[in-house]
Amino acid sequence: MIFDNLSHLSFWTYAGITLVLTHITIASVTIFLHRHQAHRALTLHPIVSHFFRFWLWLTTAQVTREWVAVHRKHHAKCETPDDPHSPQTRGLARVLFGGLGLYRAECRNAETVENFGKGTPDDWVENNVYARLRHSGLLLMLVIDALLFGWAGLIIFAVQMVWIPFWAAGVINGIGHYWGYRNFETPDASRNIIPFGVLIGGEELHNNHHAYRQSARLSNKWWEFDIGWMYIRILEMLRLASVTRTAPTTEFLPAKSSADVDTMKAVIRNRYHVLKLYGTRVIRPVLRVELTGDYARRQVRTLRKWLTREDIDLSTEQRASIDRALNISATLKTVVEFKEQLKSLMQPSVGESARLLRLQTWCTNAEATGIEVLHEFAQRLRGYHIRAA
User: Fold this and answer.
1) How many domains does the chain have?
2) Whole-angstrom Cα distance, residue 177 to residue 165?
């Protein structure tokens, strides 16, 4: 009787059921596969963990070890020819519409799975059911959908089958490295697609993730929303999850006379944020003031991108354009040189005391340039601080 009732529902009821079912799959991917397994950003109660494993077997046929290995390799080789699914090297259309094929191809690379898939489930169920009979779960899901919803269940099943390949393998891996806004100047092309991470479980905030890949929370600004984080907090309140790490919250304390060890640690840990701030508060204002006339109208926007973005490999011609602009403005040349100095002291090539001395020297020299925006930035940087949790 209940099966008959469920096979005569309205269109909008079926649409709602489909969205709920696919959203559970999205939550399973972002919470279990991504944040828990790939990055160890949280721990999950065994019951919750196994529910996610079982649901992913029913709806995606993904093997945990393979998914984790491909994703970790993406971070290790990001935007290079070895990146399994970078639109920067493979083209946006290929990743957006063929992301599933790229994922499957990399799964067949035994070296990838061996090198990057460590620490994933290796129990009897994983090896003898979820991995060995990976497609049996899809068949079971098809039978369940058909029994519950009749012919409508076949459509629901079809949507379930394309949901993850398109939204996760396509949109996140494609558009998430091609279009959107950046809170952090990471060396890759990652973007936040929109500030409201709901449809894809919070994965829309992809640039935030690449800046702090081990963070269980993908939102960073107060106006960003990560529904996956909301679910994690609910699980945590129910004692079914425990957060291991989140991105630090930074603030600017009242100006100090000199940068200290806490300042240095905050700058190093949040180097992508500091570089973003430098581009916004120093380079952009200098460009607007220093380059005027016809040259400015043609070049400022392009130069702004070249001088503030960390994910662009400049060609010889582009570098020549930058050199021409630097020859026009000594002020612009100075702030660009100070940016390179700031980047160099962020590299782990020297000890803590030597790096602190270099940061203090950088702040002192920046204030002495007489360039107002650079002076203000250096003063504020002295008070850069990670807020206590």
Assistant:
1) 2
2) 16
